[in-house]
Amino acid sequence: MEIDDTYKTIDSPGAEVLFKDKNSKFFGYTFPINNEEDVKQIIENLKKQHHSARHWCYAWQIGTENIKYRANDDGEPSNSAGQPIYGQILSFDVTNILIIIVRYFGGVKLGVGGLINAYRSTAQLALEASKITKKTININFVIIFEYKDMNKVMRIIKENNLNIYSQDLNLNCKIYISVRKKMVDKIKEVFLPLYEVEIKKLGN
Q1: Does pTM surpass 0.70?
Q2: In this structure, are residues 95 and 63 in contact, taking their beta carbons and an 8 Å threshold?
Q3: In the chain, what are the domains?
Q4: Long-range contacts for 46-54 (Cβ within 8 Å, ≥24 apart)?
Q5: What is the pLDDT of residues 106-133, one digit of tens each?
Q6: Where does the Impact N-terminal domain start and stop, copy by copy (predicted)?
């Protein structure tokens, strides 16, 4: 079975979008994120920009295989804001992304149905205004070998177009490579005949 080792995300923040309903204004934003710490900082910055707004509702998702996500209503009725925003993240099938929607209350209550529609629509507009890119899921390895085996190792790396992201070439050499998930088994096999060369997976 073919391994699906790609995912969709954004590399840079999307353009600001605006959705209006009964005098309420909803400003939508998308941001690329790598961890939960990013989320807090981005929200704080946006609160400074929109200090007179009423709500800063958001949803985010991180990860490709071990997914983490959160949806926050920020004072709106339960599940009327964060969940509709997160629903659009799922609908567009994107990850490593944060969507924040800033609401200025216009004096007329929208009701739960109206809020769900407004937050969902703004999130959709924000994603449509973002440049979504496709990336590969990569696994990182370290190749450990003695200097005398350098030529053999480098030949394999070159023949397989492997991506070196770091190297430590002292007496005991270490080369760090990033391998597309579906190439992992093949790459391990290629190094098998080199008994003095060790290849180890990094991370979890």
Answers
A1: yes
A2: yes
A3: 6-135 (3.30.230.30), 137-201 (3.30.70.120)
A4: 46/100, 46/102, 50/102, 50/104, 52/104, 53/27, 53/102, 53/103, 53/104, 54/103, 54/104, 54/105
A5: 888 999 999 999 999 999 999 999 999 9
A6: 22-127
